[in-house]
């Protein structure tokens, strides 16, 4: 059981060939992605994915008799398929939620599991806030080896916890406000730098893209680094790369004539982080195996090796640190419109 794989170019060619009365028959290798329940070795799975099998070696193909939808040729904004809404657990205010978050991080730390950079900051802030095991050697190592920038970020998170739980005093509020202002100014600098890179005529960008700029600033200011996938290598999307993706590949926030030709996501902007997580999770085993074998080399899936998911082909690059450096679709609604127009002319 599984799915046949095509490159973007092959898929476009296939959609056109299917309109012919006489479909040409060839015997070339085709690639295949087995389902999760397929009982195959890792070597067999890799061979099917990278080398494929001859079409003539297939004896029979069966498929479920259910309605079929060509997600590749769907135009307009898409909804994420097979979504199940699960009610999140309730907590007794910020204190209960923060204790739960600390418990999750401390459990992982006790098992020697890796953290993302932001999780590291949050973990030490929780330890200090709850005065938890500050006599242990790992905390002493943090005090000795952490640089001033990290300690300041931990202090900001510690004060944020006190502010949330209403245990902050007047002097700490003054310190907290100053650190929050510094954080906002840093985010504004990143956003402005991305805007400056997005247009040749920066003097007119505010006039031509005023609504997109406001949307970009609002969305990005509320974003903090997030974990995209778990494993021995934590995959995370940091603030700078989040701004980059939204400024270049999201219709509601795409800014500047230079990037107007770039492909955009066909999902609502609030769904894009979920889409990124779903795509990365679909190849997480491959990502983890790559970094285990070659920890100093970036992970890349692009061109003919781009990742297919729900009708789209995605370019992915992950740095050895686990930071998601590049993520965007190759094909968008413009590709669909070109194929649909071709099919219309062929009828």
Describe the structure concisely for a colleague:
By secondary structure, the protein is α+β, with helices and mostly antiparallel strands. The chain has 13 helices and 9 strands.
Task: Walk me through what this model shows.
By secondary structure, the chain is of the alpha+beta class. Helix content is about 50%, strand content about 10%. It contains 13 helices and nine strands. It has helices spanning about 10-15, 40-50, 95-110, 115-130, 135-145, 150-165, 170-195, 205-210, 210-220, 240-250, 270-280, 285-295, 335-345, and strands at about 1-5, 30-35, 55, 225-230, 235, 300, 305-310, 310-320, 325-330. Strands 6, 7, 8 and 9 form a four-stranded antiparallel beta sheet that branches. A three-stranded antiparallel beta sheet has the order 1-2-3, with helices on one face. Strand 4 and strand 5 form a beta hairpin. The protein starts with a strand and ends with a helix.
